Amino acid sequence: RHSDVQAFRAKILHFTDRPDPTTGQGVEYFDDGVLLVEHGRIKALASAAAMAGQGFDLQQCRHSPEQLIMPGFIDSHIHYPQTAVIASYGEQLLDWLNHYTFPAEQQFADAEFAALAAQQFLNILLANGTTSALVYTSVFAQSTQAFFQQAEAYNLRMIAGKVMMDRHAPAALLDTAESSERECRALIEDWHNRGRLHYALTPRFAPTSTPQQLAVTGKLYRDYPGLYLQTHLSENRAEIAWVKSLFPEASDYLDVYDRFGLLGRRSVFGHGIHVREREIHRLAQTGSGIAFCPTSNLFLGSGLLDLARLESAGVAVSMATDVGGGTSFSLLRTLAEAYKVLQMQQQNLHPLTAFYMATLGNARALDLDTHLGNFAPGKEADFVVLDLGATPLQALRQASTRNLTEQLFALMTLGDEHNVARTYIMGKQVFRRASRKEDQQW
Ligand code: GUN
Ligand code: ZN
């Protein structure tokens, strides 16, 4: 029996609630902690001293005193077909879509190509410590199929869906209202709530769907309880003007989606940078979320998200990379850019709040927190083992930190995937970084 239990001894951080940085409420941190995992789930978490006091033999632990264990990171908005167009030069949203994204997505008609791309994408996610995500596939149902197959092979908790778009994109990338309904139904039947997988209806954004297709989306959303919905909202000024001309009857961008019944607790709208007061109120009222994509919002010149305004109105805001508009798969880098975006607006992102958002906060925003997001007993053991000093500079900076907050701030500001030493899914190690010594031998 005992041999089924894995024990990890390290620095351990997780959140029991949204943290209050002044009191430390919501934060649980052990400078020398033990995490017990049994049958892929969290069995217990305590200080090493407390564990030893209960008669636990600390010799059983995998001991890494200099490393920090945290729940796996969660990415609330990312496009798997855009991995290879990350870092494409020179454009804002609409031109970037036409010049880079749409050509890249056409390759996903090929199921074998899509399967390989899905595998590469998931390997990169895991190397970045990201263990769950809300993922856009492409318009081709076989690319969605391929993604779910690969995610299932890794036993990941993933949410994904087929992109729906029936206008204003190259002909090769268009479906129709009818074909998208048929294909979505088949994918939902095959994959929604199968193992750790969930389906998200994914109309790309208002300009690329006819009213007929948005109506189909709303019907599907009502037909299958527990589905997710993801799309883009108010990212770019030219995009917003275009939506206004295409849907003159709507009172604003969000209202286009609202009219078709697409808002709700499991609806996640990417960006939402330029939303107006009425839209903010309506997002909050319906429990709809906004995915904050700072590296993308800066890279595509889209704008600065007013996080304080959204959160004070009660809108759930999650953290996202939005690769390939975003420039990194790393939630650490994403938190660093979020901090700077807020600095530009005289707002603040406390390091504890930042790491909460990347873990339990995003789990809550994606309605996954009954399964994961922290180390509560019984939750799925998806976690990451981080090096605090992955480079000489980081080691030097960490050596002069005085407390957890400073350590975390240096980690998010200087860190990236090189800080991810190992990644575990349901207690199983699925990624291990080659040590720096091994790197040197290469
Ligand atoms: N709006 C519509 N499609 C996309 C996309 O692929 N990326 C981003 N960032 N915005 C979009
Ligand atoms: Zn996006």
Structure description:
The protein has two domains: 2-72 and 374-441, Urease, subunit C, domain 1; 73-365, Metal-dependent hydrolases (TIM Barrel, Alpha-Beta Barrel), CATH 3.20.20.140. 38% of the residues lie in helices and 25% in strands. It is built from 16 helices and 16 strands. Strands 5, 6, 7, 8, 9, 10, 11, 12 and 13 form a nine-stranded parallel sheet that branches. Helix 5 (177-191) links the parallel strand 8 and strand 9 (197-203). Helix 12 (331-343) packs across helix 15. The model has no long low-confidence stretch (mean pLDDT 97).
Distance between the termini: 41 Å
Q: Round the mean pLDDT to the nearest integer and report it.
A: 97
Strand content bin: 15-25%
Question: In the CATH hierarchy, what is the superfamily of the largest domain?
Answer: Metal-dependent hydrolases
- Rg on CA atoms, Å: 21 Å
Total E-strand runs = 16
Bound molecules: guanine, zinc ion
The helix fraction, in percent, is 25-40%
Number of domains: 2
The CATH architecture name of the largest domain reads: Alpha-Beta Barrel
CATH topology type of the largest domain: TIM Barrel
Residue ranges: pLDDT <50 for 5 or more in a row? none
Shape: globular
Helix- and strand-based class? alpha/beta
